[in-house]
Amino acid sequence: MKSFIERVFKSKKQKQKELLDEIANTEAKESLIIKAVEETMSAIEQVKKEVKKEEVVTYPKPNHFPDCNCFKCDRWKKQNAK
Hints:
- With 82 residues, this protein is an all-alpha fold.
- The protein has helices spanning 2-53, 71-81.
- It starts with a helix and ends with a helix.
């Protein structure tokens, strides 16, 4: 009977130890994920700043007929397609 009780308690201790290890691993993974997200967000902010710095050239609408395919009309159509 004593050996049975010892096995039961050993198994309970083992399960508790495994749960604690799992919780520690989960917390470590969460901290790594949070770091990765923060780094990604900072990279996104840098890209946004760089995009804002780019000069946007706008071309005036040429007053040609609607089917015109000259370079001015083509350039104007492409700028509005973005």
